[in-house]
Amino acid sequence: MSRGDLAGLVAAFGAALHDAGLPVGPDRSERFARAVTLLAPTTTAELHRCARATLTCHPEQFEILDRVFDAVFRGYADDPADFRGDPNAVGTSTTSASSGSTPSAGPPPAGTASTGREIEIPVATVGSATERLASRDFATLTPSELSELADLMRRLAVATPPRRTRRMAARAHGNAVDLRATLRRARRTGGHPVRLMRREPRVRPRRLVALCDISGSMEPYARAMLQLLYCAAGTSRAEVFTFATRLTRLTKILARTRPAVALHRAGQAAPDWSGGTRIGAALKAFNDTFGRRGMARGAVVLIVSDGWETGDPAQVGVEMARLSRLAHRIVWVNPRTQSPRYRPLVGGMAAAWPYCDAVVSAHSLNALDPLLAALEGRARHAAHQ
Questions:
Q1: CA angle at residue 227 from 224 to 232, to 5 degrees?
Q2: Are residues 212 and 197 in the same domain?
Q3: Which Gene3D superfamilies match (predicted)?
Q4: Contact between 332 and 356 (Cβ < 8 Å)
Q5: How does strand 238-243 pair with strand 300-304?
Q6: Quick one: CA dihedral 118, 122, 128, 132, positive or negative?
């Protein structure tokens, strides 16, 4: 179902609820549409739960919603007693006729007769194409399909652990007395420091530094990670580099532009895009040029690579050891680790493994949660296990 079809269906459903006496406005309808997009219900029962959670605010409103929901989505108007399978309850056709009330609109359509259990009718069209792409491996997505995931990536929160800075900030319950502020305030009380002003160090998120392997095997995953950093983290808080046979800084190129344009410019700026891989040389270039200047000091370093090294793997171990002494933590994204049979036995990955605080696959949108947790430090996936 396209977004236009979903919007029209939700608007019609909201109008029907409003006409039936339920206070449903555009805000609730928008909330219902967002829930349908995120949860992608595949049955009427799941869709019904979404409607109850977003369109009602009190259990007394359930009866109206259930009646309108059945008329709109199940194609018939029935009494709740019919849905429970109770033929003797008030509201069935026999009782309704004797009491002079309006009879039921007719039996339910084929396949939806009351059976005393919850009715399950497939509604496969409700799920959007974006949610279906979320479970696919980034390597199988075309550039246009990857760009469709930008909206979902914007809803993710790429955060890093906080760190204490040297700058101080006024705090009511700070652990240090701010002498200057105390004396300034004492002017109001004749020079007597009636109240002690306090301060404590400011807290800021740690810098995020991303090194993305753009060799042939890693190019789709590098594009996905660059898009994630652009959409979720924002390049103002992240330093971004790519490497294959050489190291290229992309921070300025990825700033203040749409993801598709940023990725195109990134490909133009990196002359070795989809080339070979020299991880050790790239790490050495970063450590020598940027790491020792302080960029990696206390930062969270994200390395995206499958570990294939065309140079000397021993150099990877040496440079990873240097980097680990500077960085707060190192998170390595290797899509090959999605296989339970994967073992880092040879090459650059084996040399880098002991120095990684976390190793995750992050091969699809649905597999990004462990990555976000590792970057924030909420979950520790020990690389040695």
A1: 120
A2: no
A3: von Willebrand factor, type A domain
A4: yes
A5: unpaired
A6: positive
Whether 148 maps to a domain, the answer reads no
Structural domain harbouring 232: 208-376
**Residue position matching structure tokens 């309108």:** 68
Q: Do 190 and 231 fall within a single domain?
A: no
Torsion angles phi and psi, residue 200, rounded to 5? -155, 160
Q: Are residues 354 and 222 in the same domain?
A: yes
Tell me the C-alpha distance between 19 and 40, whole Å: 27
- Overall domain count for the chain: 3
pLDDT, tens digit (0-9, with 9 covering 90-100), for 11-37: 888 888 888 888 888 878 888 888 888
CA–CA separation, 337 and 312 (whole Å): 22
Residues 87 and 109 in one domain: yes
Looking at the fold, whether 228 and 371 belong to one and the same domain comes out as: yes
Q: Which two tokens stand for residue 214?
A: 């753009």
Supply 222's token pair. Answer: 């590098």
Dihedral (CA of 295, 297, 298, 300) sign = positive
Question: Residue 231 belongs to a domain with what CATH number?
Answer: 3.40.50.410
pTM score > 0.85 for this model?
no
* Same domain as 222, residue 343: yes
Please tell me the distance from the alpha carbon of residue 31 to that of residue 137, in angstroms, as a whole number: 29
> Which of helix, strand or coil describes residue 352?
helix
The phi and psi torsions of 383 (rounded to 5 degrees) equal: -70, -20
Instruction: Please tell me the predicted confidence (pLDDT) of residue 117.
Output: 41
